[in-house]
Amino acid sequence: MIKILELFGGIGAPRKALINLGIDHKCIDYVEWTPNRVKAYNALYNHLHKPQDVTTWNLKPDILVHGSPCQDNSRGNKSRKGLSSDSRSHLMLETLRIIEEMGMWKPKIVIWENVKGVLDKGVRPIFDYYLEEMERLGYTNSFDVLDARDFGVPHARERVFCISLFGNEKFDFNKLERKKMINISEYLEFSMDDEIPEQYLITIPSMLNKIKEFNPKPTGSYKRQLDVIKDFCYTITERQDRCPNAGIIRLKNPQYRYLTERECWRLLGFDDEDYNLMLKEFPTKPGKRNATLYALAGNSIVVNVLEAIFKVLIETDKVIAA
């Protein structure tokens, strides 16, 4: 059995990946401060945080996965703070403290995921510091930028994945199994001929004026535009009703619509059964979009990418499923 520790755990994408692979595992702990994410995680994995006698636990995790807050690393944030003490991204350094305090129980594998902007000059020092400290703790680091489109998902989501192995061996990203991208039409909830619920239609003039093919040459100081989705969507974030967003769908009239909450969950690698559980926890008001369900998806890791990583780790005996 693989033992996993999820820090900044979100909605549990690492656990979903292990379930999809059929790997026997146990989450020895899950840490997340946002109440809605904790509520979603509990519903997805039938888990409740209850008092337990820690003396009955084996607290040594095989894999530690952490995806610390990315806002202060993001290229979309004009006031990125990097390594400054008030940066939300500074929380990634808490993982270093936790690993050091584990002593001889250090995890065999540590996986860190974040936005590509962490490699930019202005915020790179925090990543370099993390790498140096992981080496001091006995790990060998490997990192690469992975795009969900290379793992079959029509979602242009590029993220830095750093995989640290305890000892002297490096993780080989070339061993990851790439898959042909499926067209986004296979992920959509509505076809061109369906009647689209009104809440998903774009009717606000300020948004219509930002649609690239509707207004290819915007004027004014704010020139960000909305891309029309063709084969794949762009990065899904917490909100779709802003510019830029993950892209919009062109309808026949022509009209345009937002991606639905269900479509966003599918494009993060979760299935409809997962989404239906979320609807029970966070009901949608009639005629309204569900901001909570959008936000939960937008903060997750793409499950399919994690599946590819775990598969290599298991096949190369970096972690043994006993």
Write up what this structure looks like.
With 322 residues, the chain is an alpha/beta fold. The protein has a domain at 2-178 and 302-315: Rossmann fold. It has helices spanning 13-21, 35-45, 92-102, 124-136, 205-208, 261-267, 272-281, 291-298, 303-315; strands spanning 2-7, 25-31, 63-66, 109-115, 139-147, 158-166, 249-250, 256-257. The strands form 2 sheets. A 6-stranded mixed sheet has the order 2-1-3-4-6-5, sandwiched between helices. A two-stranded antiparallel ribbon has the order 7-8. The longest helix is centred in the middle third of the chain and has 13 residues, at 124-136.
Q: What's a quick, concise take on this entry?
A:
27% of the residues lie in helices and 14% in strands.
What labels describe this entry?
single chain; 322 residues; alpha/beta; Rossmann fold; 8 strands
